[in-house]
């Protein structure tokens, strides 16, 4: 019985203090960590390949392909969803989470009083295909570091051979253990 208690206690202690989720939760609360804003906004340019597009209406391609790096943080395209009337492109970061130090992206500005403010730029997404800018439909950020946008099916002919994405948004943070 005592051994079972020790094992369960050790498991939860590890989860709350040393796992990536536990560390990230403590960092976001600045519980034992100093968090420093490094860059706001981050910017990267990448090419979205046409073979990644779903084949057919109401289909989804789960990709999880790393497209860029900001410091030690990767940026990946998670999935592309053909929603019938538009095509949705979803992105997230691959944070560098270690116990003593790390780096991550966020869709929030960390205020000095410990609160957070959503961070989203009106012109965060620029899509260029066939030497012209393509209109962006819905777009958004969050939770955490996720961001995405959609392009109307009316513009599919313009993007069918792929397109260049210029992203300007998110906040790049580094942290260290106190």
Topology, pairings included?
Layout: H1 2-17, H2 20-28, E1 33-39, E2 42-48, E3 60-70, E4 73-82, E5 86-94, E6 96-97, E7 101-106, E8 108-110, E9 116-118, E10 125-129, E11 132-134, E12 139-141, E13 147-152, H3 156-159, E14 163-169, E15 171-177
Antiparallel strand pairs: 1-15, 2-14, 3-4, 4-5, 5-13, 6-7, 7-15, 8-9, 10-11, 10-14, 12-13
Helix pairs in contact: 1-2
Biggest sheet strand order reads 3-4-5-13-12
Q: How much beta, percentage-wise?
A: over 45%
Shape: globular
Portion in helices: 10-25%
> How far is the first residue's CA from the last residue's CA?
36 Å
The oligomerization state is: single chain
Counted up, domains total 1
Helix-strand topology string: HHEEEEEEEEEEEEEHEE
Characterize the biggest β-sheet: 5 strands, antiparallel
**Poorly predicted parts:** none
Keywords:
single chain; five-stranded antiparallel sheet; four-stranded antiparallel sheet; 178 residues; alpha+beta
